[in-house]
Give the backbone structure.
Amino acid sequence: MAINLPNQITIARLILAIIFFVLLGQYSHGESGPRLLDVCATLFIVAALTDALDGYLARRQNQVTSFGRVLDPFVDKVLVCGAFVFFCGPAFVELESGRNVSGVRVWMVVLIVGRELLVTGLRGFSESQGDAFGANVFGKAKMMVQSITVPVILFFLAHQDSVLGSPGVAWIMPAFVWLTVVVTAVSIAAYLVRARSILAEMSRP
């Protein structure tokens, strides 16, 4: 089976995600230098940009395939959810205080991952009934905010001893973390309302 260009880009993004996690897995706060986080942030940004590229090419060249429709959101979820799982792990804990320096808490990750499981389930059910269940504006906003938050965290932690650690801009990282939480929660509510409408319509005689 020939794999078209958009799907090739999606596969390349999966490979970038694997490299990203391998490198991020080498990080230990207080021991690793800033270069490692800079490389990880750059890889994540490139991977996130290819997400927009493969979707654009698939629509423009009329090359939307079932393979791509499954693989593309899967890679997105692996990349984003995996990054936040890493952030709440022990590698980002300050040994002296026991504080997680990324600002990401376990409950936040549960919210982020739970949202993806919910939407995946709703999409599978809806499309099994023959109804399309594409991403809405809330889902797109959620993805955009999360994709910005990850490199923001990485860059701020890499350069916390420079200007990025000064009080004037230090608030930016926690602000993006909380913005991610809020947008994710709003996205959950929007999809629940959408699912209710679908179920109500299906129950009509």
Notes: The longest helix spans residues 172-202. The mean pLDDT is 85.
